[in-house]
Amino acid sequence: MPHTVYFLNGPNANLYGLGKDGTYGSASFTSIEARCQGHAAELGLTLDFRQSNHEGVLVDWIQEARLNADAIVINAAGLSYSSVPILDALLAFDGPIIEAHMSNIWKRESFRHHSYVSKAATGVVAGLGALGYQLALTAVAELLAEPPQ
Ligand code: DHK
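Above: inputs. Below: predicted complex with 3-dehydroshikimate.
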């Protein structure tokens, strides 16, 4: 059975490519998903790629992942810096968790420098745009194939 990965995207991720300042590049969210789906297929992963603007929906999906997914990649976007409920849900998940950000959050405003998600994450990718999402999927495939001792 192929491993299943939930790739969860938080508020406003659906606007990537449409932003005026170009922080998140010019690729649309749909094209980023297509790129991730293609890469997941190459890695032999089943990818469930989702986006919500609502904290509770993200918490429900993380809880659902406990039953249906082997790993989580999550860009909780603006909720990364505030959401204890998302952190608590992630802490209840047993598999690898990769925190992903399109931008380099440490180069930006100081309120983006502390992520609650990081407390639960196995690893973090940031600042590499959609390439970082591909790297997150590669990391998950490797971690699932050979969990660190
Ligand atoms: C995405 C967002 O929407 C912001 O709120 C975060 C993150 C950064 C990103 O880089 O993908 O601060």
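The two ends are 23 Å apart (CA to CA).
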